[in-house]
Specification:
By secondary structure, the protein is an alpha/beta fold. It has four domains: 126 residues, Response regulator (Rossmann fold, 3-Layer(aba) Sandwich), CATH 3.40.50; 97 residues, PAS domain (Beta-Lactamase, 2-Layer Sandwich), CATH 3.30.450; 64 residues, Helix Hairpins (Orthogonal Bundle), CATH 1.10.287; 153 residues, Heat Shock Protein 90 (2-Layer Sandwich), CATH 3.30.565.10. Helices cover 47% and strands 23% of the residues. The chain contains 16 helices and 17 strands. The strands form four sheets. The protein has a five-stranded parallel beta sheet with strand order 2-1-3-4-5, sandwiched between helices. It starts with 5 loop residues before the first strand and ends with a strand.
Length: 500
């Protein structure tokens, strides 16, 4: 029996009040008494009891009125009503007001004891529940404070991040996995011509108005492609042109699923225009050189006689060499233009290889080198740019002949292959020359580079053949590679996708 609870006995009759109090004190309870309803409310306000034994029939303020004032249901104590006149309506009202029990006078000890014990047990449950609620409330307040602190910290970090993002030189565009716009920094707004507040959450394809940029971004966002960068020309409002490098970065979760894409746009206008100026200069110089060379060659053909054959042959060879250098300069000028694109046509691959072999025939004949074709293609028609393919094949064949030993063999092999799940073609140029060491393989595709030291070189030329071949193949969205060992020759392989 829980006898630690405090009990308040309220009754206007001294005899009844003392009798009930005596029973409880004898039972080991702590008891306090009140002689009226008002007296009870005052004492409850000073020191809240655990159980209130409340007489219903009292003058001025009845037990039911006291019970109504106490709001027992929402407090951590219980009330038991005592009456000398049993009434179903009084009992019903008492229960509705939250009374725990209802006793009739004269009060029997066993009934009183049972009611008090059950009431104290319920009070203990209420107090425990209140304690848990208080602990929970404290924890909630603590978490709420922590959350508020975190929110303020994130807001501060967000403002700093916004400052960093908007201070970037690049335009920054972020898309979710459904290509809806989730971020545009200030520079991206200027480049794209959109306000983030007006296009947030919209599909990129529906928000963009510039068709060139829309086409470039659609190309990059095609997940079947491996390209992550391209150069885009955007016409300004006053017919001024701007060039931007557009770079795509995929964002994946820990399981590899696509979360979204970040696209950066870097202004390359000054660089591209400077390159265009350089390219234009090279092109003009090359064409100006070609004209007098042609005149000289024509006159040499006229004045050639048996008596002066040797000097004429020497001059013809010099003109031929100079003509090749000029052709290299023209190709270099053309392919150095960052805005160049492929002019796709139907090309017969075997015929293209045969034409290039015939053009290289004189150089091969001088070194007694045999040129061969190993054609394994079933379908020869291929969609590509014939001029770019010619530049790539010419560069590889000239390189193979130049570095092959006299009396050797240079072969061109054609095979079908698969590129990005689509039909493609592999063209390999194999020589039996001096080979290339591992360090030189890393730089031979750079411009003005040969597979030998410029201080001890034995072969003439600008060293642009492989660079031009690589550049041409890149414009065709293809790939070029080399496998070589010193003294065992080299194999250069072009992988070309069919351009759609």
């Amino acid at each position: 029996m829980n006898k630690t609870g405090r009990i308040l006995v309220v009754d206007d009759s001294d005899d009844n009040r003392d009798a009930v109090a005596s029973l409880l004190i004898a039972g080991g309870y702590v008891v306090e008494t009140a002689h009226s309803g008002h007296d009870a409310l005052i004492k409850i306000a000073v020191h809240v009891p655990d159980v209130i034994l409340l007489d219903i029939d009292m003058p001025v303020m009845s037990g039911l009125e006291v019970l109504r004032s106490l709001n027992v249901k929402n407090n951590n104590y219980e009330a038991i009503l005592i009456t000398g006149y049993e009434s179903i309506q009084s009992a019903k009202t008492a229960m509705e007001l939250g009374a725990f029990g209802y006793l009739s006078k004269p009060v029997q000890w066993e009934l009183l004891k049972n009611q008090v014990e059950h009431a104290l047990s319920m009070v203990a449950v209420k107090k425990e529940r209140l304690r848990h609620l208080q602990v929970l409330e404290e924890e909630i307040n603590k978490k709420n404070n922590e959350l508020q602190t975190t929110v303020h910290m994130l807001e501060n970090q967000g403002r700093r991040l916004d400052a960093v993002i908007n201070g970037m030189e690049e335009g920054l565009l972020a898309l979710d996995n459904e290509e809806r716009i989730v971020l545009l920094n200030v520079n991206a707004e200027k480049i794209i011509g959109l306000k983030f507040s007006e296009c947030a959450g919209r599909k990129l394809s529906s928000a963009l108005t510039d068709e060139t940029l829309k086409s470039a971004l659609s190309f990059l966002l095609d997940h079947s492609r491996t390209d992550n960068k391209c150069l885009v020309r955007i016409a300004g409002p006053e017919h001024d042109e701007h060039y931007y490098t557009v770079n795509k970065i995929k964002l994946n979760d820990n399981h590899g699923a696509l979360l979204g894409v970040v696209v950066t746009l870097l202004d390359q206008t000054d660089k591209v225009k400077a390159e265009q100026l350089r390219t234009s200069f090279l092109s003009i110089v090359a064409h100006e050189l070609r004209t007098p060379i042609t005149v000289i060659q024509n006159y040499l053909a006229i004045i050639a006689t048996e008596s002066i054959r040797s000097p004429v042959d020497d001059m013809n060879a010099a003109c031929f060499k100079l003509r090749n250098l000029v052709d290299s300069l023209i190709s270099l000028a053309r392919l150095s233009d960052a805005s160049i694109s492929a002019n796709v046509k139907k090309v017969h691959l075997q015929n293209s290889v045969v034409v290039q072999i015939e053009k290289s025939g004189a150089a091969a004949e001088n070194k007694n080198i045999t040129l061969e074709i190993d054609d394994n293609l079933v379908v020869h028609e291929f969609d590509t740019d014939p001029l770019l393919l010619e530049i790539a094949l010419s560069g590889l064949l000239d390189n193979a002949i130049k570095y092959s030993m006299a009396g050797g063999v240079v072969s061109v092999t054609l095979n079908h292959c698969t590129v990005n799940d689509s039909d493609g073609v592999a063209i390999a140029v194999v020589d039996q020359g001096c080979g290339i060491d591992e360090d030189m393989q890393k730089i031979i595709f750079e411009s003005f580079t040969q597979g030998e030291s410029h201080l001890t070189r034995h072969f003439s030329g600008l060293g642009t053949g492989l660079y031009l071949a690589k550049r041409a193949i890149e414009i065709l969205h293809g790939h070029i590679s080399v496998v070589s060992q010193p003294g065992k020759g080299s194999t250069f392989t072009i992988i070309l996708p069919k351009i759609k």
